[in-house]
TrEMBL record:
This is Tryptophan synthase beta chain. It holds the Pfam family PALP. GO terms for cellular component: cytoplasm. The keyword Amino-acid biosynthesis applies. Keywords: Amino-acid biosynthesis, Aromatic amino acid biosynthesis, Lyase, Pyridoxal phosphate, Tryptophan biosynthesis. The keyword Nucleus does not apply. It comes from Mucilaginibacter glaciei. InterPro entries: Trp_synth_b_CS, Trp_synth_beta, Trp_synth_beta/beta-like, TrpB-like_PALP, TrpB-like_PALP_sf. CDD domains: Trp-synth_B. Its EC number is 4.2.1.20. It catalyses: (1S,2R)-1-C-(indol-3-yl)glycerol 3-phosphate + L-serine = D-glyceraldehyde 3-phosphate + L-tryptophan + H2O.
C-alpha cells in the first residue's frame, strides 16, 4: 500500500516508536506478534463473528435523501452510530481484546478523555471476563460523570489522573506508567490511530472494516464502489482512517478530514492541529502537534471531547503533508448547527464530533451526480446536555 506503514514503522517522515527504554520490551512484543496474530484464520473468524453478532455489523450505508436534495449530490451516511456502545470505537476494542487474549495477557489498561474509549474497553473486558483499569483525568471524570458510571457498572476500575491539567494527556501518562510497571501480564488498549508503532497501523486495520463494507455497499447501491468524496471528523483520527483506508490507493477519491476549530483557529481555544501545529513527538510517535516554541504541548480546546486532542495520528500527518487528504476545520457553533440540522432533516441526532464532518457540507460545491460518503462516527445521546444548553430546549 502506497500510503501504508513501512517496516520501520514510518509513514514518510512520521510515525516510529519514541518510547522510554523501559517500555521497549512491551512495544517490541506487540510489533513482532500483531500481524501474525491478526492475519490468523481463527482470529479473523472470532473477530468477524463478534462484529456481526455483538457489535451489529455490517453497519448500514444510508442514502440520506433530504440531505442529497439540499446539497445537490448523493449523500450517504456510513452508520457507525448504530454500533453497540454508540460509536466506531468498539471495532478497535474488540480487535485489541482478542489480540491481548492471544498474547496471554490477564489485565487491560486504557486511557480515556470523554469516556467513550473507556466505555468500549470496559465493555469488551466484561465480554471476556478480563480485569480492566481505565485512567481518566480528574477534571474529565467530573465533566463526563455518566460515562464514569457506565464503566463502573461494566466492572472496570476508573483511576483519576491528578497530575498536570488533569485531562487526557495526563491520563495517557498514567497509563504508560502502569504499563512500564506491569509489562508481563498487561495489555494497553490505545483508542485511536496514535501512539508508538505498531499502534497506529494496528488500530487503522481494526477500523478499516468501515471502508471495506462501504465499498461493497456503494457497489450495490450505485453500481460503482468508488465515490467522489469521503469525509470524516478527526480527533486522533481513527474513524477517519477506517473510513479512508480502502480508498487511499484510489487517487480519484477525494478524502476530507474535518478537525475542530473550537472557538476559531486564531482564538487560542482550538484543536485544529494541522492548521496550528508543527512537527514533533507526541505520545510515542513523530507527528504534527500543537506546541509552544520550546516544544511543550499546548492544551487544545473543542466543545466535543472526542476531538479535543493536541495531535493527529502519524498516518494523517503524512496524508496531510503529501496532500493525499484535505484537512479543514469547523467551529463549535457550526458543528452545533449541523447537529441540529441533521436531527431535523434526517431524524438522526449525531455526536458533536460527527456534526463537525456534517458541517463541512455547507462549504462544499458538488456536481449533480457526485457520490459523497460521510462517516457518522457516533450517536448524540452522550451530547444531549450540550445541545440542550446551546439551544435551550
Ligand atoms: C472518539 C470519537 C471521535 C474521535 O476519535 P477518532 O480517533 O478521531 O475517530 C469521533 N467521533 C466519535 C463519536 C467519538 O466517540
Amino acid at each position: 500500500m502506497k500510503y501504508g506503514v513501512n517496516e520501520q514503522g514510518y509513514y514518510g517522515d512520521f510515525g516510529g516508536a519514541y518510547i522510554p527504554e523501559m517500555l521497549y520490551p512491551n512495544v517490541e512484543e506487540l510489533r513482532q506478534q500483531y500481524n501474525k496474530i491478526i492475519n490468523d484464520d481463527s482470529f479473523k473468524a472470532e473477530y468477524n463473528k463478534l462484529l456481526r453478532d455483538y457489535v451489529g455489523r455490517p453497519s448500514p450505508l444510508y442514502h440520506a435523501k433530504r440531505y442529497s436534495e439540499k446539497y445537490g449530490a448523493n449523500i450517504f451516511f456510513k452508520r457507525e452510530d448504530l454500533n453497540h456502545t454508540g460509536s466506531h470505537k468498539i471495532n478497535n476494542a474488540i480487535g485489541q481484546i482478542l489480540l491481548a487474549q492471544r498474547l496471554g495477557k490477564k489485565r487491560i489498561i486504557a486511557e480515556t478523555g470523554a469516556g467513550q474509549h473507556g466505555v468500549a474497553t470496559a465493555t469488551v473486558c466484561a465480554l471476556k471476563g478480563i480485569e480492566c483499569v481505565v485512567y481518566m483525568g480528574e477534571i474529565d471524570m467530573e465533566r463526563q460523570a455518566p460515562n464514569v458510571a457506565r464503566m463502573k457498572m461494566l466492572g472496570a476500575t476508573v483511576v483519576p489522573a491528578t497530575s498536570g491539567s488533569k485531562t487526557l494527556k495526563d491520563a495517557t501518562n498514567e497509563a504508560m506508567r502502569d504499563w512500564i510497571a506491569n509489562p508481563v501480564d498487561t495489555h494497553y488498549i490505545i483508542g485511536s490511530v496514535v501512539g508508538p508503532y505498531p499502534y497506529p497501523d494496528m488500530v487503522a486495520k481494526f477500523q478499516s472494516i468501515i471502508s471495506q463494507e462501504t465499498k461493497k455497499q456503494l457497489l450495490e447501491q450505485t453500481g460503482n464502489e468508488l465515490p467522489q468524496y469521503v469525509m470524516a471528523c478527526v480527533g486522533g483520527g481513527s474513524n477517519a482512517m477506517g473510513m479512508f483506508y480502502h480508498f487511499l490507493d484510489d487517487e480519484g477519491v477525494k478524502l476530507i478530514a474535518v478537525e475542530a476549530a473550537g472557538k476559531g483557529v486564531n482564538t487560542g481555544h482550538s484543536a485544529a492541529t494541522t492548521f496550528l501545529g508543527r512537527e514533533g513527538v507526541l505520545h510515542g510517535s513523530r507527528t504534527i502537534l500543537m506546541q509552544t516554541d520550546d516544544g511543550q504541548v499546548v492544551e487544545p480546546y473543542s466543545i466535543s471531547a472526542g476531538l479535543d486532542y493536541p495531535g493527529i495520528g502519524p498516518q494523517h500527518a503524512h496524508l496531510f503533508k503529501v496532500n493525499r487528504a484535505k484537512y479543514v476545520s469547523i467551529t463549535d457553533d457550526e458543528s452545533l448547527q449541523a447537529g441540529l440540522l441533521c436531527s431535523q432533516m434526517e431524524g438522526i441526532i449525531p455526536a458533536i464530533e460527527t456534526a463537525h464532518a456534517l458541517a463541512y457540507l455547507e462549504k462544499m460545491t458538488f456536481e449533480k451526480n457526485d457520490n459523497v460518503v460521510i462517516c457518522i462516527s457516533g450517536r448524540g445521546d452522550k451530547d444531549l446536555s450540550t445541545y440542550i444548553k446551546h439551544f435551550g430546549f
